[in-house]
């Protein structure tokens, strides 16, 4: 699950990044509304955590601009403002949810997973293809009746494949799904993690569902 966190306070941004990464999410950080604009338009995010108070604008304006630009990633507004009028304004500008500071990470991650599952369009609660099942909210996956023990990165890659079964996913697309923007794109990390994923989802079961498409990327054969 890839999340854009828009927060100008460095300490709060770092706390959010570390807490959400511990929950298995991939985090990109933006410190201004301008950064949020171009980052949200140039990559696909499962959710956006948007602070209301930003140095160059406010979160309400950022959310309105994203919706006007047809960016429909779910937006969770994060703020210390507890006035009903502010919550209404946030929802009216296109936000999907609203969390007040201080908050618990248990609540924040639960809300983010619920938003990601709902997504910009209706998404199934459980993804299924090629004899595999994955529950994004519960962070669990199975081959048939056998539950799989996956690392956070392996889970993220499997989720990417199960959201687009039968399609070829390039290494760049898989990097985008599982690693932040600062990651070195020329690395062979994707190939290494695909091998690890095959060792978990295919080889123990005598299956060959994860296929290499030479010169292009990888495909989950349904």
UniProtKB/TrEMBL annotation:
GO molecular function: phosphorelay response regulator activity; transcription cis-regulatory region binding
Entry superkingdom: Bacteria
Modified residues annotated as 4-aspartylphosphate in this record: 51
Residues in OmpR/PhoB-type domain copies: 124-222
SMART domains according to UniProt: REC, Trans_reg_C
Phosphoprotein keyword on record: yes
Cellular component aspect of the GO annotation: cytosol; protein-DNA complex
Chain ranges of the Response regulatory domain: 2-116
DNA-binding region: 124-222
UniProt-listed InterPro entries: CheY-like_superfamily, OmpR/PhoB-type_DNA-bd, Sig_transdc_resp-reg_receiver, WalR-like, WH-like_DNA-bd_sf
Classification via CDD domains: REC_OmpR_PmrA-like, trans_reg_C
Keywords noted in UniProt: DNA-binding, Phosphoprotein, Transcription, Transcription regulation, Two-component regulatory system
One Pfam family it belongs to: Trans_reg_C
GO-annotated biological processes: regulation of DNA-templated transcription
Name of the protein in its database record: DNA-binding response regulator
